[in-house]
Automatic annotation (TrEMBL):
Keyword tags: Membrane, Transmembrane, Transmembrane helix
Positions of region (Disordered): 1-20
Name the UniProt record assigns to this protein: DUF58 domain-containing protein
Annotated organism of origin: Derxia gummosa DSM 723
Membrane spanning stretches: 51-69
Upper classification of the organism: Bacteria, Pseudomonadati, Pseudomonadota, Betaproteobacteria, Burkholderiales
Length: 342
């Protein structure tokens, strides 16, 4: 009579996970992000190209002919060409070995644009480097490095959403000198790019800014009555300039309108005042467009994002701080704004 142990099927070894070999292959080339990398024999890989394989097949055919017909010159030709191919392998390896990569950085971009990560290749062995291709996530370039000098390379990646974008992995490869070998190395730069929200297009008019020919502000908190004309100050909005008074003075005196309770054109861009139907990203896109326009007009403006607030100011520093706050809003990282009091 069969027991439970007799009825149990024999143990079978677990089948390998699908794609296991491919996963191990990719894991072999995976490296942590590095601020700098000095290329050496542990980080440079070599494989023959299609031209190299065809060249090897040609050498084999020539060798068979030389052996079959006892051609001493044929043997000499095969050995000379084979030696040249072997020397080209060492020359290509030396073309990458000793290169130092570092200094990766990128300027902020808007969502939907290409982020350009720039880094430096420096020769550490007083040897000129030729025909080096640098490939990134979106396209690549070719460069050379002078002996004892350096060269700037750029890799690009598409910024699909706001926030931080990590630098793509850079592939450096060369076929120097004959194109018979593909010699390459991989580097993951420890750099990231700040991605601003894509500005709304077309952008709506700024809130609280007066009509160009009127004496009253339009909408927003700046609906105070016109008070008086004052001397123009750098940073005043062109919409506040009294162009008719300027014309009456024959271009001698430039004045700006001052409104009761106005602080000279300060604006507040408040996410809470925008329609909820826009959604979070829609509101951020509209605020981004307003920040860009207000900066172009030289206005002083502030930004409110929930409990975060940037006080009114103008200039490139204010623009960058506001765009940074918009880029990182809700992502668990501070955008540089101060916490507003309750």
């Amino acid at each position: 009579m069969a027991t439970d142990s007799d009825a149990r099927p024999p143990d079978t070894p677990p089948s390998p996970a699908p794609g296991g070999l491919r996963a191990r292959w990719h894991a072999f080339f995976e490296r942590p992000a590095e601020a700098e990398l000095l290329l050496g024999h542990r980080r440079i890989y070599t494989l023959p190209t299609r031209a190299g394989l065809a060249f090897a097949a040609l050498l084999c055919a020539l060798l068979l002919l030389a052996v079959n017909y006892e051609l001493s010159l044929g043997h000499a030709l095969v050995f000379i060409l084979g030696s040249a191919a072997w020397v080209s392998l060492h020359q290509g390896f030396a073309n990458l070995s000793g290169l130092k990569l570092g200094g990766a950085r990128a300027e902020p971009v808007f969502a939907g644009e290409l982020a350009a990560f720039e880094f430096t290749l420096t020769d550490t062995r007083r040897r000129a480097r030729h025909a080096i291709s640098i490939l990134g996530a979106d396209g690549g370039m070719r460069t050379r490095v002078p002996a004892g000098g350096s060269s700037v390379a750029i890799i690009q990646a598409r910024a699909t959403r706001r926030g931080w974008l990590d630098a793509p992995r850079a592939t450096l490869e060369t076929g120097f000198p004959f194109g018979l070998w593909r010699i390459w190395s991989l580097w993951q730069p420890a750099a990231r790019c700040l991605v601003y929200p894509a500005p709304e297009a077309p952008a709506l008019p700024l809130p609280g800014v007066e009509d160009a020919e009127g004496d009253q502000p339009v909408g927003g908190p700046g609906q105070e009555a016109f008070a008086h004309l004052r001397a123009y100050q750098p940073g005043d909005s062109p919409r506040r300039i009294a162009w008719r008074a300027f014309a009456r003075s024959d271009g001698q005196q430039l004045s700006a309108r001052q409104f009761e309770g106005s602080t000279g054109g300060e604006l507040w861009f408040d996410a809470a005042s925008l329609p909820g139907a826009l959604g979070v990203e829609g509101r951020l896109s509209r605020l981004t467009a307003w920040v860009i326009e207000a900066d172009a007009l030289g206005l002083a403006y502030g930004l409110r994002l929930g409990t975060e607030a940037l006080p009114p100011a103008s200039g490139p520093a204010q623009r960058d701080a506001c765009l940074r706050a918009l880029a990182l809003h809700g992502l668990g990282e501070t955008g540089g704004a101060d916490k507003a009091g309750a």
